[in-house]
Amino acid sequence: MDSRVSELFGGCCRPGGGPAVGGTLKARGAGSSSGCGGPKGKKKNGRNRGGKANNPPYLPPEAEDGNIEYKLKLVNPSQYRFEHLVTQMKWRLQEGRGEAVYQIGVEDNGLLVGLAEEEMRASLKTLHRMAEKVGADITVLREREVDYDSDMPRKITEVLVRKVPDNQQFLDLRVAVLGNVDSGKSTLLGVLTQGELDNGRGRARLNLFRHLHEIQSGRTSSISFEILGFNSKGEVVNYSDSRTAEEICESSSKMITFIDLAGHHKYLHTTIFGLTSYCPDCALLLVSANTGIAGTTREHLGLALALKVPFFVVVSKIDLCAKTTVERTVRQLERVLKQPGCHKVPMLVTSEDDAVTAAQQFAQSPNVTPIFTLSSVSGESLDLLKVFLNILPPLTNSKEQEELMQQLTEFQVDEIYTVPEVGTVVGGTLSSGICREGDQLVVGPTDDGCFLELRVCSIQRNRSACRVLRAGQAATLALGDFDRALLRKGMVMVSPEMNPTICSVFEAEIVLLFHATTFRRGFQVTVHVGNVRQTAVVEKIHAKVTFKHVPALRKRQDPNLKHNILGFPSLHLLNK
């Protein structure tokens, strides 16, 4: 591990920049993504066992914000102290939007002291009492020994505390699935959600396809949604032990909603719509081990970077390749991720401990990109991905969520249905505010630029009834006898207090990622803004810094002009 990676991962380094203590497990801290800047521990007059140095390992100092808490020990606290600890746990759960991580045996300054077996048992018992008090569940993620300056074995225990907020049915995380055609996206989702391995000929993906031509060609052309649940103990809940989606929702405390996107180039506009409209928390970029980075993989990677969607990488089909081929594909990925355009720090996950660390670092640092290598046929390393998804916390903090909920209601309409005995139903994402049953909203714009009044009759999330919808959540809304012919994808349902207006000319900043020809005035484009897809014409191009007129943009230019032309030029766009 080079110094840049070690600094980013906040490893348990020796003071003075020495090598990390222990292997992969002990070389990475779970407290922060910052560098090893914790204070040095005081030297003690202890024996140096096994010829090891007498310098203490440590994590970065504990942060006041965030969902990670350090505790040296929790042995027989007084009633006053216990109530204070419970209040502290509620704060950490709120910061993590229902999830918190406790490091037992660690001082507030990050020093890894460790506890003896008896003290650790007593501390975990107290932690369990605290969790019961707030209605949460605890799961031990991992244990590690600390042999600094002690003759007795001492341990540090990392514990996950999970509590579904009172105003939610379950914790929710949306993951968009990207990758080239035939890389195994739908097959992997079928294995995860159905609980059965693939037979090597695509049997696992059949339940995910929505159209006959998809079954016949084996290629996804539309957007589909699949769910994977985890209960409070971190156990997988899927269709292998639940017959319906309603049962999965009822048995799960955390839900992963996979957004299966198309990989073929001719369906690229559908993939872009899925990334911009459904607001995924992160993306899973799938790469086939036998083909490497090919086809639309680079384009999908560029889209994730341009839209600032955090992503992790899964290398599939390792059962078809020799070990050297898999290693070559991983090296190719690492080279691409480290390029100036990406600035990512790849992290290869090879053990359950790596998966725990990767989930925490991925949530704390936008630069860390975990890489998994697995097989949907043999099931090799599939459990590591499940551990990662189970521990992965929400990527937006509670403050951002509260700010969105304080705004006026805005619901993006992505799908429109007609359900017998229910009426018109729309599906989409609530981008801001709160929506309740019975709310009066306006929907539009119509062809003449107007907004029409309507009433929300009922709400469902993952096919389960829901009375209140909050910002960032996806759901379907029943609109009763509202005329479906007046609706179309790309509309918004907003609070009447917003006084929505429409525009036909606007200015945008762009970065030219992929383009075969010259991008100039008069060029016709399709603009994706959230759930809106609209054709437009480029009226003017000018540089962002100098505001001088730029005649055209090209993907490749003279190096001396690259800074001026490929920076962030501004466009004047006219709706067509």
UniProtKB/TrEMBL annotation:
Q: Name one GO molecular function term.
A: GTP binding
UniProt keyword list: GTP-binding, Nucleotide-binding
Q: Does the keyword GTP-binding apply?
A: yes
Which family, according to UniProt?
A: Belongs to the TRAFAC class translation factor GTPase superfamily. Classic translation factor GTPase family. EF-Tu/EF-1A subfamily.
Q: Where is the Tr-type G domain?
A: 170-398
Naturally occurring in which organism (per UniProt) = Pongo abelii (Sumatran orangutan)
Region (Disordered): which ranges? 16-64
| Positions of transmembrane segments | none
Please name the taxonomic classification of the source.
Eukaryota, Metazoa, Chordata, Craniata, Vertebrata
Question: What is this protein's gene name?
Answer: GTPBP2
Instruction: Quote the protein name from its UniProt record.
Output: GTP binding protein 2
